[in-house]
Q: What sequence folds into this?
């Protein structure tokens, strides 16, 4: 397989992973619309949507929930409170106090119990009649809640997972962005790798999709791309995109700098906003690793690097959320035809979402 950075005009900078690549003006890149077949994207999306979730939803970054105060979340229209018990284990319960409904995200924590700030009711992980905590999973980077009444699927003991780099010498950061859309719009955006160098020219160059999902084999996209650093300098990698669950897309670097690093994109439905339209949170966990000497000590610089990692992810999601919101608006607007799984057609433009005449 040809490396994204190995074509003519590229030059390696000594032994560093950074390559100089031949710069192509944005408008002169090879168009990708003919390859970005809506039926391929739609098919991959449909298969992802049919995968079991076990009713698990990402609710927060693990490090965002400390021992000192609870955190409130609304998932699929349900108010939740997240806190840590006496042993530091994460716990999730209904967000309204079972007495008169006070907001438990404003409760105090005392020896690992929630103490309601309206009348002092003490709540712990064993619950009380009318108020039962739900299963919670802390994978060290993300917190998940199992909401059986929302998911309606067969519950599982743990969320659908995928391999992550080992703990030693890895860096992780979690960024969250909220959009007016549904989870499938977020997943559909991630299952369109062809937009990368067009919509995010500041981050990607020379993107080439070398494998599209085959449900009978590896149901994945394989992409060669140069992550742009500055000007003509960038890091070429080969990455795969897979969906381990209906609301998750995982990008894993298979070759190039940072092999094994993953970007997990989780789409969590929040419920309708004040305008009645759906809101979805994109919770993106970047878990970076490298076998380079010195990276094993990355944890020392993590507090400084983490905000930078979050900023990069958030910048990309500013554009991607606009894509997802646009998709949601089109597919839910009256008078539009097209769907998440448009039928195959020989005309690459008409296969997508478009208004009826
Ligand atoms: S509302 Fe919580 S104790 Fe009364
Ligand atoms: Fe994107």
A:
């Amino acid at each position: 397989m040809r490396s994204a950075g190995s074509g003519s005009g590229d030059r390696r900078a000594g032994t560093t992973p950074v390559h100089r690549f031949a710069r192509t003006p944005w408008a002169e890149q090879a168009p990708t619309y003919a390859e970005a077949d809506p039926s391929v994207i739609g098919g991959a999306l449909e298969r992802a949507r049919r995968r079991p979730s076990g009713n698990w939803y990402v609710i927060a970054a693990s490090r965002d929930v400390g021992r000192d105060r609870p955190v409130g979340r609304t998932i699929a229209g349900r108010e939740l409170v997240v806190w840590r018990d006496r042993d530091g284990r994460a716990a999730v319960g209904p967000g309204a106090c079972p007495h008169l409904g006070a907001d438990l995200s404003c409760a105090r924590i005392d020896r690992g119990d929630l103490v309601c700030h309206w009348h002092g009711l003490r709540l712990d992980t064993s619950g009380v009649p009318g108020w039962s905590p739900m299963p919670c999973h802390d994978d060290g980077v993300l917190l998940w809640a199992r909401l059986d009444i929302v998911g309606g699927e067969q519950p599982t003991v743990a969320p659908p997972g995928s391999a992550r780099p080992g703990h030693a010498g890895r860096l992780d950061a979690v960024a969250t962005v909220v959009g007016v859309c549904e989870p499938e719009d977020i997943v559909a955006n991630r299952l369109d790798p062809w937009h990368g160098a067009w919509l995010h020219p500041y981050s990607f160059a020379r993107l080439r999709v070398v494998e599209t999902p085959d449900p009978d084999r590896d149901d994945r996209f394989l992409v060669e791309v140069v992550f742009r650093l500055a000007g003509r300098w960038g890091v070429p990698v080969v990455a795969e995109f897979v969906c381990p669950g209906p609301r998750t897309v995982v990008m894993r670097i298979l070759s190039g700098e940072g092999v094994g690093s993953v970007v997990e994109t989780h789409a969590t439905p929040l419920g309708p906003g004040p305008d009645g339209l759906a809101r979805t949170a994109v919770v993106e966990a970047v878990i970076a690793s490298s076998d380079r000497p010195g990276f094993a000590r990355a944890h020392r610089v993590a507090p400084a690097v983490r905000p930078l990692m979050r900023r990069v992810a958030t910048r990309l999601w500013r554009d991607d959320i606009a894509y997802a919101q646009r998709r949601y608006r089109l597919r839910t607007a009256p008078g539009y035809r097209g769907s998440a799984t448009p039928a195959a057609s020989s005309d690459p433009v008409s296969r997508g979402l478009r208004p009826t005449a």
About this structure: Confidence is low (pLDDT under 50) at residues 1-14, 340-357. Residues 11-51+162-337 form a domain with the Alpha-D-Glucose-1,6-Bisphosphate; Chain A, domain 4 fold (CATH 3.30.530.20).
